[in-house]
Amino acid sequence: MRSLLSNDNTFVHSGTVSRITGDSVFVSLEGNIHCDSCKVKSACGLSETTNKVVEMVQPNESFRLNENVRVVIRKDQGMLAVFWAYILPFVLLVGSLILASLYLAEWQAGVLALLVLLPYYGILYSLNSFFRKKFRITVLKLI
Fold first, then answer.
1. Separation between Cα atoms, residue 81 and residue 4, nearest integer Å
2. Side-chain-facing half-sphere of 8: CA atoms under 13 Å
3. Is the pTM value of this prediction over 0.85?
4. pLDDT of the chain along its 143 residues, tens only?
5. DSSP H helical ranges for 63-105
6. 28: Cβ contacts below 8 Å, ≥ 6 apart
7. Cβ of 89: how many Cβ atoms within 10 Å?
């Protein structure tokens, strides 16, 4: 546990187990002082409000409701999540806008560029189980 918490390659958030359903544990994250020094805090979303909820599927340990825990997320996973959620859709939007503006009227190009995002987010939603496996969140009990 100490190696995960002291590792420079991880983000650590304090939280409380807010809900347990089936094979999932939901943890409410509290405000984190580490967000102030983070380079991607504006894109992350965890620094904007004081309470976010993350889901951990099939935890290795058993947790109780209202138990204080630490949520550990690897930094490379955070950057990959920012890529899938923000950077790639932006590139798709701007790229399709530029390409469509060569052949269509301005308003049509804008509408088409926005419509390109619908299948993108639909595909992301359909790949939900893949991303749950890819982005592993570790929840550690406080001693």
1. 20
2. 0
3. no
4. 444 555 678 888 888 888 888 888 888 887 655 565 566 666 565 555 557 888 877 677 788 888 888 888 888 887 888 899 999 999 999 999 999 999 999 999 999 999 999 999 999 999 988 887 788 778 888 77
5. 75-82, 88-103
6. 15, 16, 17, 18, 51, 52, 53
7. 16
Report the interhelical angle of 88-103 vs 106-126 (nearest 10°): 150
> In a 3-state reduction of DSSP, which class is residue 95?
helix
- Between CA 74 and CA 114 the distance in angstroms is 32
Strand-pair partners of 12: 72
- Shortest CA distance to 20 belongs to which of 51, 50, 62, 60? 62
CA distance 132 to 43: 20
Structure tokens that stand for 37 in this block: 């020094």
CA separation, residue 107 to residues 103, 110, 134 (Å): 12, 5, 38
